[in-house]
Design goal:
By secondary structure, the protein is of the alpha/beta class. Helices cover about 45% and strands about 10% of the residues. It has a 5-stranded mixed sheet with strand order 1-2-3-4-5. Helix 4 links the parallel strand 4 and strand 5 (about 150-155). The longest helix has about 35 residues, at about 30-65.
Length: about 180
């Protein structure tokens, strides 16, 4: 955990403790308000982890001198105002009808997939084969088969791949393989 994260956790702990002391609702015992507050704290943490994951990927892609853009940038959208996490080589190329579609790649980044992997499917209609990188271990065979049926290529770090079945591992890409694919254009 880096210094910035430690400071944030310390500050968050202070705020949460203060809120716990004050209670929830008029009498301080409103369970629904407590649950709502607890979920907001958890969601804030998940969001922070997701942004950090994207930040690490951004840094790694820059180290490998890849041409890409993140969807978080202003105006970086595809159809229906969708914001894919990463487009290779750029959103400008994506929107250029003369740019060869086969040279475009789209990458979604989710620390955990659950059913949220389906969001990636509608984020870049011009790119039929989507890529999704995750840190999630041991996604079910049924779910990885469904991903494959939707032409979604799962990317899992080498260190996590051992949690998948041998059959699943044969169909996974690791991060280095994905970077090589991007470099190959």
């Amino acid at each position: 955990m880096d210094h910035e994260e430690k400071l944030f956790r310390l500050y968050e702990r202070h705020l949460v403790q203060q809120r716990l002391r004050n209670g929830f609702g008029v009498n301080g015992d409103d369970v629904d308000e407590f649950i709502s507050y607890s979920l907001s704290v958890q969601n804030r943490r998940k969001s922070r982890v997701g942004h950090a994951f994207e930040g690490h990927l951004d840094h790694m892609f820059k180290l490998h001198q890849l041409s890409f853009q993140q969807g978080r940038g202003k105006g970086n959208v595809t159809e229906n105002n969708a914001k894919p996490d990463f487009i290779f080589p750029s959103f400008k190329a994506y929107h250029d009808p003369d740019f060869p579609q086969e040279k475009l790649l789209m990458l979604g980044a989710k620390t955990t997939c659950k059913d949220r992997w389906r969001q990636v499917l509608s984020e870049a209609a011009r790119i039929p084969k989507k890529h999704l990188i995750t840190l999630e271990a041991a996604i079910s065979v049924a779910q990885t088969e469904e991903m494959a049926m939707h032409d979604l290529q799962l990317i899992v770090p080498e260190s996590v791949q051992s949690t998948y079945t041998m059959n699943q591992q044969e169909k996974l890409l690791n991060v280095s393989e994905f970077i090589s694919r991007v470099k190959a254009g």
